Amino acid sequence: MSKHDQEVETDDVGSVPTFFREHQQFFEYLEQIASMAGDRETWVNSEASEKEEETQLVRKASGILEAYQEQPMCLDPHLERIVNTLMSVIQEYVHALYESTVASSTSTGISMSRMSELFDLVYTLCKVRGYKVILRFFPHSVADVEPVFAMLWCHSSVDAVAPSWTTRYILLIWLSLLAMVPFDMASIDSGLSNPPALDLSTVNRSGRINTCAHSLMAKWIELGKLHLNKSGCEMEGAAVMLAHLLSRRDALEKEQPEFISWTTREISESTGLAAGDNASKSLGINSILRINGALRVLCHLFLVMDSPTALDEQLEPLLAIFQSDAFEQHSITRKLISKASQRLALLFLPPVPPKPTVDYNGISLRENLESSTSSSRAAKETPDLNHLDDDTADGCVDQAEDIELSAEVEAFVGILLQKLHDKDTIVRWSAAKGVARIAERLPPVLAQEIVGAVASILQEETLEDESGRADISMTSEFSWHGALMSLAELSRRGLLPPQMLRETIPWIVRGLTYEIQRGNYSVGSNVRDAACYVMWSFARITNPLSKAVFAELSTDMATALISVATFDREPNVRRAASAAYQEHVGRHTRELAAKALGGLAPLAPEYVISDLLPAIVAATASPFLAVRHGAVLSLGVVAEVLGPRLQNNVQLSEMVLSVPGNIPERYIQDFGASLTLSAVASYIGCLSRAGWGIDGSQGGGSGMRQKQFFDYFVQALTVCKEAQGIVPEFTAFVDKCGLSDEQHSIVERYTRVERSGTSCQSFVLAMGALNGQGDFELLCRLVTQGATVETRRNAAAALAHVCQRWTQEALLEGLLDHSVDNRGDVGSWVRKQCLETLLVLCGSDSTLITRMAAGHHGSDIVVLLLGRTLRATTEKLDKLRTRAGELLETLLYTQQDDGDTATVVTDLPPPVQRCLAQLRMCILPRGGINSDFRRQDGAVSSYADTLPPTSEASLAAKSSSSNQEAAATASEQSVSHSGQWSVDGIVDELTRLLLTDRRTSKVINPALIVADQLIEQGALAAASPEK
Predict the structure, then answer these.
(1) CA 326 – CA 286 distance, rounded (Å)
(2) Can you say whether the dihedral through the CA atoms of 952, 957, 963, 969 is positive or negative?
């Protein structure tokens, strides 16, 4: 055993796997198994010793796979190779067996049980990863249909010698895939000659299986019926197979209705509900198997059916079955009834849920943000939901009130609501998900009725004590658990209206501490866990009015969650409360902990240096990814805030600087390397900002260390998919240490690598840390000529950091990038980043427009900037309109030092001054909207409220003079002699439209109207400067 393997075994004992560690050993076993099983001579006659060796190899391989049941996704990168290796051998064997036993008159003596070990290994894969994932890699050609069907038929016959249930299960799910081949079944059916008789020993009633079926479709259905009576996986495999088979187009008219009728008779006969019989008080094991098999196939069938047409005659019997009390002692049966009820109800509802239109009238982002930071003002600034009408309080406008629900859907909803009180958790959970799925398909008004019915369960059997507090000692923990689970599922889908949240949250907070004494024991841990789930689901709600309710009640919610996470005696409840709290405050726990340590370290530096620092340094080489990631982050923060103290101590300084070299190489190469490398990048950035001596000027080993740190950044930019967090650290490193010519060329060379992936795009973003003339020119070219849209977007972002001269031309060209591929409007990524870069440049330099106007393009480039910014405000994407509005505001306003007034830039050519001044006149400060604007919709006022204050006197004077002149001269001056819009024409048209147009209620702000009109008339496109 190698040293590396020894380290893995000793270090990772008891840890949760994060990648397929034993893949090399497993594939060695797999190749040996495939080689032995693929030997055709052993199919006829195999020696006992070879059979035993193959069995042992299969057991070893299965043992490796079973260790990943808690983390099965670790196997995903290798699944295709594993399944293809096994199924290629099985496929060859199945075809050979078909030719020898069914399609041929002479037998070659191939053993039917030869591949049982391989089927066992495939079943282990299905058990660990799930059959739906494994089934994706199964062969599914038309030529496989009859051989696989024939093998399953033979394994189900009376002549089968010790058939393996794993073999039958794999064949069943394989047939479920083959049942979806896009060819008519009659064209595939070649007719099986003299198939062996089926084993009907498990069929205790005559007439249930049609042994005289002739067509392939009919035999397929009868074979599936036979396996529906088997317990365990065979029943599930048969149900999936029959559902896919009966959903075929050539089975819709005859086979599907007949089969549904058969399942109804099966259940009715087994329960005694047929022909008016009384339901049996006690059901035997055979009856339960028949009922569960029929219900299971109905659940799968209802999921893939397109319409309830085939159910017309069976609805009444099915409702009687679902409402029967004959299954009180059988939880699996009741769960299947719950699942079948919800899926059957969904067949009667529109396939696409009605999408409500969110009404944001009266909602102020500023007020919401201020209310979240000042609890004393929350009551004043939160919208009064009690005085809003139903549509406004919900934040929705009903679009589908005319949808009529059938009586059957109401009956199914009633069944599910009753199942929320069931004594078994699996039944309540299934019903909770079903209620939410149905409510999601309903109009908002009807969905609210369901939400109200669920919430009312919490108040059932609740009394008030002498002090007026709710007494829940008489309530049922089953009902509370079911109601809370349903509320959580409804919340996840955004179906809880705001006015009901205010009423429901106090009850959910009570659920966090729910506990009732039952004799000498207490119950309620499942209720507390479900209440934590509801709190967790609240983080998925995006309705602004709901957020206002949360802001008002956030203190009570947070206090209750922290108390439960700290003091509840059930570990699973503590974990659930902690997860719910983290979902609201953020998931980045280790990053927050590192920042908190950085804030606390200066308060107790001696303790941090003497006690914590050695432990943190030791943890940076931990085999556990989470520990290693947090330790490296914390070390960087501590080294930054305590830099002078640590650098004065040679021993401590060397201990801190040597950490990257002590991290084992495998931790930056295997699974999880991106987290480790991003933490190391943060650590190096902290050292650079704190002025640690890591650059080449220090002499000695520091030059080697600078090279080592640079190599870490190269690895991080190559491996990490998200480079936005690494580039600032790389910038700090370059500013502190600089780069050699060789290192500079490495960064530039990586931007030209033509390959898929994100490393090339990351290095383009990292070019923003370089300041050379060649770097600037390269980025300008990449903005418009980059190989991918991601490269062009990152180049535009890097320009904000590297440019030291005029870069606006390239960015303005980037605003015209409308590239489209199979992902949609990917050019919007470039346009958004160009807007953000222009915003950074204009916001950081108040003289930028003046210098642009003084350039070789003159005022044309400024008009072009304004025009394309206005064009961007008409984009369909909200994120682009937002960035364009921010850029327009930055261009219109230049803040003074006192921050109280905004002044117009005066050192500009007259056309640009007039354009800027008249644009400002439409955006007056709060309370300063003129009479023309007051007659328009409140959208203008809302937009004006978000802008900085301005001197009204100066703007009013300019507005008065401009209003009188603009309307009279707009038509004469708007178009030049060449037929194109001139600068003066644009200015006049801006003024006329902004001050007289009455369509403001249809847009977001006045600037949208201007740009919309100019684009329609071709004004902005003609303003581009000559190249």
Answers:
(1) 15
(2) negative
DSSP state letters, 73-90: GGGHHHHHHHHHHHHHHH
Rounded CA gap, 289 and 258, in Å? 21
CA distance 172 to 182: 19
User: Kind of pairing, strands 470-471 and 463-464?
Assistant: antiparallel
SS3 state of residue 471: strand
Cβ contact 995:963 at 8 Å: yes
**Position 798, amino acid:** A
| Helix 285-304 and helix 255-271, axial crossing angle in degrees, nearest 10 | 150
CA distances from 589 to 161, 574, 592, 626, 668 (A): 58, 16, 5, 11, 22
Please say whether the beta carbons of 114 and 93 come within 8 A.
yes
Distance (Å, rounded) from C-alpha 1007 to C-alpha 1013?
10
Q: Alpha-carbon distance 171 to 112, whole Å?
A: 13
Question: 278, 337 in Cβ contact below 8 A?
Answer: no
Residues 20-76: pLDDT tens digits? 889 899 999 999 999 998 888 888 776 777 788 899 999 999 999 999 998 898 899
**Residue 807 burial by CB count (10 A; 0-12/13-18/19+): exposed, middle or buried?**
buried
Q: Where are the beta strands (DSSP E) in 192-261?
A: none
Block residue for tokens 């904000």: 800
624's torsion region: left (phi>0), alpha (psi -120 to 50) or beta? beta
493: tokens are 């889908």
Looking at 424-497, list the stretches that DSSP marks H as alpha helix, in order from N- to C-terminal side.
425-441, 444-457, 477-492
Residue 686 and residue 636 in contact, taking contact as beta carbons nearer than 8 Å: yes
> Distance (Å, rounded) from C-alpha 342 to C-alpha 328?
19
434 close to 414: Cβ distance less than 8 angstroms = no
Specify the residue for token string 């980043």.
833
- The C-alpha R_g of the chain, in whole angstroms, comes to 36
Q: Quick one: tokens of 1015?
A: 């684009």
Q: Which two tokens stand for residue 321?
A: 């079955």
Judged against a pLDDT cut of 50, whether residue 84 lies above it is answered with yes
Summary mean pLDDT of the chain: 75
3-state class (DSSP) for residue 397 = strand
Q: How far apart are CA 346 and CA 439, in angstroms?
A: 10
1015-1019-1023 Cα angle (round to 5):
125
* Beta pairing, strands 902-903 & 894-895: antiparallel
Q: Which residues of 507-533 are buried (b: 16+ CB within 10 A; e: fewer)?
A: bbbbbbbbeeeeeeeeebbbbbbbbbb
| Strand stretches in 867-980, DSSP E | 894-895, 902-903
Phi, psi for 358 (deg, rounded to 5): -75, 130
Strands (E), 446-604: 463-464, 470-471, 516-518, 521-523
Cross-strand pairs, 397: 357
How many H-runs (helices) and E-runs (strands) does the chain carry? 52, 8
314 φ, ψ (degrees, to nearest 5): -110, -5
Helix (H) or strand (E) holding 1024: none
Grouping H, G, I as helix, E, B as strand and the rest as coil, residue 346 is helix
Other residues' Cβ atoms within 10 Å of the Cβ of residue 165? 17
Q: For residue range 813-851, list pLDDT tens digits in order.
A: 888 888 888 788 888 988 998 888 888 877 776 667 766
The residue type of 354 is P
Helix H or strand E encompassing 618: helix 613-619
Handedness of CA 511, 515, 516, 518 (dihedral sign): positive
Helix axes 145-155, 165-178, angle to 10 degrees: 150
Three-state SS at 981 = strand
Burial 677-696 (b: 16+ CB within 10 A, else e): bbbbbbbbbbbbbbebbbbe
Give the 3-state secondary structure of residue 143. Answer: helix
What are the φ/ψ torsions at residue 921 (nearest 5 degrees)?
-65, -20
High-pLDDT (> 90) share of the chain, %: 28
